[in-house]
Amino acid sequence: MDPPFHEKYKPLFNNCVILSKHKDDFLMNVDEECELPLIDLQRLTLNYSEREQCVKEMRQAAREWGFFQVVNHWVPQEILKSIQLEQRKAFHHPFSKKAEENILNLSANSYRWGNPRATCLRQLSWSEAFHIPLTDSSRIGDAYKSLRASIEAFATTAAKLTKDMAEILAEDVGVSSTFFQENCLPGTSYLRMNRYPPCPFSSKVFGLMPHTDSSLLTIVNQDQIGGLQLWKNGRWINVKPNPEALVINIGDLFQALSNDVYKSIKHRVLAPQQDERFSLAFFYCPTCDTEIESCIKPSMYRKFTFGEFMEQVRKDTQATGSKVGVSRFLM
Ligand SMILES: O=C(O)CCC(=O)C(=O)O
Ligand SMILES: [Fe+2]
After folding, report:
1. Domain limits of the chain?
2. Based on CB atoms within 10 Å of each CB, which residue in 127, 133, 304, 314 is the most buried?
3. Catalytic annotation, pick one of 122, 148, 192, 277
């Protein structure tokens, strides 16, 4: 069922002797493990002072970390459990079926693995994914109706959670309270189901190469295997899995919208040695013609639309193997 990574990317592995002289190639093992700021969202439903404390912690985490975890969130555990189970089933089909038969009946290119544009080993991701624009979830056929139902249930609750959090964060940086309601429609977000197969070369290759997310906000549901790392204060830090919590991170669009008050932090996933790892990411995104412009002046970024941003990401990835990101739009 695993994609033929080694076979397809053999030339990159052969060049690796030279590449591994690069010091970052030895940085896979990081001793430091951290607990991300943990925010109990239940307090949003309690009295004024509890709510204010919760809001304060969320804004502080978004400023200082760009990453946090939430518990007592709006996504029921049963929905998370069922999507995890269905995701596992979908990935456990033979590779040829996933790659050639479009089993979920999604748009072309929804099933992805490795990085077809990688020019060196550091740009390879030893993982496979189903990338699902939410406009497409209804196309999933009846053979996968429980997957379709869990995706739809998850997407509905995840969209509500991201909208509520985005509004709380936005208020502090002058973004209109109706921005998300007007620009983030039920079908404009994306879901990505990720699987990281066991990797015999885990000291040489990433599970998911370092990147920032192109979203406004991202929700990640990771399993217990671990491997997610974020870049903080000049080093990589392991994010300890917490089974009760969802990981939330600021995406590129919110960084620009907040004029860098909130940071879209670089993160990556180490390839597991023995176990397979699964994660699910929900990318909260606006329509393509949504204009991203900070209310904080002077603005560091020129005004751009989400569509323009994605087109730039596509061009950069095609040309260099990796994304440049929001710095492309600096004034
Ligand atoms: O697998 C993870 O924990 C993170 C996934 C991720 O960063 C992504 O899909 O953008
Ligand atoms: Fe990510």
Report:
1. 23-329
2. 127
3. 277
Asked whether 197 and 276 are in contact (CB, 8 A), the reply is yes
Q: What is the pTM of this model?
A: 0.95
Is there a catalytic annotation at residue 59? no
281 lines ligand 1 (CB under 6 A): yes
CATH topology of domain 23-329: Jelly Rolls (2.60.120)
Return the pLDDT at 18: 45
How much is the pLDDT for 259? 98
pLDDT, the chain, mean: 93
CA of 235 to the centre of ligand 1 (A): 18
Mutate to test the pocket of ligand 1, among 199, 267, 282 (most ligand atoms within 8 A of CB): 267
ipTM passes above 0.90: yes
